[in-house]
Amino acid sequence: MAEKDDKSKKGSTIAPFEAVGVIAAQSIGEPGTQMTMRTFHYAGVAEHVPTGLPRLIEIVDAKKEPKKPIIDIHLKSSYARSESEAEKVARELSSVFVRDVARVEDDLLEKTISITYSEKDGKSLGVSFAALRKAIEEYSTNLKVSEPKIILNPTREKKKDEEKAKEITSKYVRKLANKIKVSIVKGIQGITRAVVVRGDGEYFVRAAGSNIVGAMVHEAVDAKHVYTNNLKEIERVFGIEAARNAIIKEIEDVMNMQKLFVDVRHIMLVADAMTFDGHIKSIGRHGLSGQKVGVLGRAAFEETVKHLIHASSFAEDENLIGVTENIIVGQTVPVGTGKIRLTMKLKKKSKE
Fold this sequence. Notes:
Layout: H1 2-12, H2 20-32, E1 40-42, E2 46-49, H3 52-60, E3 70-75, H4 77-80, H5 83-93, E4 96-97, H6 98-101, E5 102-107, E6 112-117, H7 119-125, H8 129-137, E7 143-146, E8 149-152, H9 170-181, E9 184-186, E10 191-199, E11 202-209, H10 212-217, E12 221-228, H11 231-238, H12 240-257, H13 264-275, H14 295-299, H15 304-313, H16 323-329
């Protein structure tokens, strides 16, 4: 049995000097040509979440934020068993803005802002008039309150180096009114449209947007099981190792959704290359390809003239260590059998 295991291990190892990068690129790139450009409806949370080629490009380009971020929030067992409890948590997590529960109007002549509370919307979203008032008090304490209406007179505080506060202009009033409309009354910043989803015998919350730290603070949330498709946020909160695992998962998900099956080791190599120096790097000219050691390797990808001029200005050396560089100059590529150097000692022929 041990002998059989030994053979299977040997069968899965890579041959010495194998061009693993080229094989990984081919293994992911070739199925990539079969991908569709269409987007996919994702459980009614964030309509048209990019899948297929757009999502793959988003991952390898290491975008700061996905086009449609999504967060999966798993709950503690006492909340996860009951759908009603999970829905209650979803309502508490989902952001409610002032514009959702009130009508905000600015009077540019009087330079005031009126906020009219809608009792119907407020009740359905669980926001009281008192909560709305508290949110508006953060912008100014100069309020005239007569339920359901709040009249706000904007005030400007003077800074240390100013003798008096700046004058209230119509432009300032309009800007402030727009700011008030999108200020949060209830819920967590960055999490919107939360819905309850059933999966693996329990209920969890799936929402548009992402705010891992904000979600983890909630008492009903299982902090160990919060996941988002926002890779940069995973890196910032959980570190580079978690980000590497997330890259592998996201690429695998894209491939599987398109019914394309690629060996996970090729994807792992891509994830390792993107994260090996401690932060997520893109694969394009601003990341890995633009930071190759060889001058010709960098020039062969994009911005050829820029790289050649820069190399000649700073007298850079080209040691021909990569695949691309050797192909350009017409030498044997230093991978596989091209890496092997054999020397042979011939026997001297004895004189007859």
